[in-house]
């Protein structure tokens, strides 16, 4: 018997989307035990997808495209205009290869080692500090790591400003008013900074190793054999550095996990498999990316729902990572669940799903795993600290979310 796909009866749910935050889509789709649901946002009919089947449809490039799916305010802050996130088809696949080419086993190993080296430096500094706010410190730690890894020269006096601008780009896209405007300015400053470096590389004024992101972006040629416009190359290089700094959010959540689930700490310190499972569980359990958008290529019907050409579709990232149809006790933090995990393309999707080369799945998933594992291992093995009274709870309504106190540590020592 044909069943009608349920929909919101209210005229517009844009405000409710912000009020419900990470729970907006799961509340609608999963509460009805479905994969698709219709709502209205900014006056338009929007299809909400959730779960493994929903993710599989979302990543079907024959049915969905990205051009036009991202609001201007996100492009002018977080991603940059006309970059890989907005591309489709052959042009996208070619650009994606550029990013994937940076992720060699040697480069990833190098990233892990760099991360540990910076942890050693920072932990040394923290020993003399009265109070350490982990989120603030790791943003700078990762800014240094990211620039080093990408071949981007960073003067000591530039570090605070660059760290601040990269963070503003990450946090300002969902903000309104002055915070959003500051985020746009931070993007402009950052693009200019990197564009100048791209020009220097092309003029032979910077000595660089092949394989670093700066070298590869500066020398990349598009499908027509043309070098990228210097600004475009800068935007794509920022698509490497900025998200590396954003890993500080997962890192801070991981510190909360080590505190809230203390039985995990000795295993994180001593067992490499467990360390990997813990890291995956941090990416699954804690809220980061709430949802992603795509547009429908042509009319089609799926699970009795009629998708219309150009309609906006959102995939529920947070909800799929907490879908009880995929994860047993999804709201329990349980690294062991990854012992038997078979690595599906559409179940664990904190950084998108599907195939890296064919679709938009995050090419930075491996770097993220390397940085997080190096960090959690260092924290559990070498860092001793007291956690004073503070509010490190986090909200599922504020996007992107973060432990409120930023995770404060005191009396930090290294062993
Ligand atoms: C795409 C999340 C780290 C580079 C994405 C997407 C998500 C995501 C959700 C979109 C997937 C889609 O549209 O289907 C994250 C998170 C990170 C992270 C939560 C960790 C904090 C990184 C890192 C890099 C990176 C470390 C680079 C070294 C990119 C790029 C894209 C992307 C270039 C666009 C891919 C495309 O459009 O084909 N990321 N990412 N990300 N990410 Fe990440």
Automatic annotation (TrEMBL):
What organism does the UniProt record list as the source?
Answer: Halobacillus mangrovi
Give the range the annotation lists for the signal sequence: none
Quick check: keyword 4Fe-4S in the entry?
A: no
**Alphabetized UniProt keyword annotations:** Heme, Iron, Metal-binding, Monooxygenase, Oxidoreductase
A biological process (GO) of this protein is: sterol metabolic process
Lineage runs: Bacteria, Bacillati, Bacillota, Bacilli, Bacillales
Which PANTHER family does this UniProt record tie to the protein? CYTOCHROME P450 26 (PTHR24286), LANOSTEROL 14-ALPHA DEMETHYLASE (PTHR24286:SF24)
Q: Which GO terms describe its molecular function?
A: heme binding; iron ion binding; monooxygenase activity; oxidoreductase activity, acting on paired donors, with incorporation or reduction of molecular oxygen
Family membership, please give it: Belongs to the cytochrome P450 family.
Q: Name one Pfam family in it.
A: p450
Gene3D superfamilies named in the record: Cytochrome P450
The protein's name: Cytochrome
Task: Name the domain of life this protein comes from.
Answer: Bacteria
**Per its Swiss-Prot or TrEMBL entry, what cofactor is needed?**
heme
């Amino acid at each position: 018997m044909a069943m009608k796909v349920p929909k919101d009866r209210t005229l517009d749910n844009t405000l409710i989307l912000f009020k419900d935050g990470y729970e907006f889509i799961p509340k609608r789709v999963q509460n009805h035990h479905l994969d698709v649901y219709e709502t209205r946002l900014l006056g338009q009919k929007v299809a909400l997808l959730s779960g493994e089947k929903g993710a599989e449809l979302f990543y079907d490039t024959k049915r969905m495209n990205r051009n036009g799916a991202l609001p201007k305010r996100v492009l002018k802050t977080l991603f940059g205009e006309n970059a890989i996130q907005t591309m489709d088809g052959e042009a996208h696949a070619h650009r994606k290869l550029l990013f994937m080419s940076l992720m060699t086993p040697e480069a990833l190993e190098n990233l892990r080692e760099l991360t540990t080296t910076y942890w050693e430096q920072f932990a040394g500094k923290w020993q003399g500090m009265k109070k350490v706010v982990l989120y603030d410190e790791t943003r700078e730690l990762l800014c240094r790591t990211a620039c080093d890894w990408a071949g981007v020269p960073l003067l000591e006096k530039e570090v605070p400003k660059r760290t601040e601008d990269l963070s503003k780009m990450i946090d300002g896209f969902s903000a309104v008013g002055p915070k959003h405007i500051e985020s746009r300015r931070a993007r402009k400053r950052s693009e200019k900074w990197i564009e100048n470096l791209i020009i220097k590389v092309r003029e032979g004024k910077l000595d660089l190793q092949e394989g670093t992101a700066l070298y590869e972006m500066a020398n990349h040629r598009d499908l027509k054999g043309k070098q990228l416009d210097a600004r475009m190359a800068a935007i794509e290089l920022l698509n490497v550095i900025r998200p590396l700094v954003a890993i500080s959010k997962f890192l801070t959540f991981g510190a909360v996990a080590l505190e809230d689930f203390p039985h995990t700490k000795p295993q994180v310190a001593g067992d490499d498999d467990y360390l990997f499972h813990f890291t995956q569980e941090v990416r699954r359990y804690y809220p980061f990316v709430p949802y992603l958008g795509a547009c429908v290529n042509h009319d089609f019907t799926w699970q009795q729902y009629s998708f219309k050409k150009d309609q906006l579709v959102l995939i529920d990232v947070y909800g799929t990572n907490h879908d009880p149809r995929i994860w047993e006790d999804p709201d329990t933090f349980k690294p062991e669940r990854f012992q038997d995990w078979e690595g599906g393309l559409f179940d664990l999707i904190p950084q998108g799903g599907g195939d890296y080369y064919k679709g938009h799945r995050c090419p930075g998933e491996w770097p993220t795993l390397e940085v997080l594992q190096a960090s959690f291992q260092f924290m559990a093995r070498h860092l001793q600290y007291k956690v004073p009274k503070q509010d490190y709870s986090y909200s599922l309504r504020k996007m992107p979310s973060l432990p409120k106190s930023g995770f404060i540590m005191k009396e930090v020592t290294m062993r």
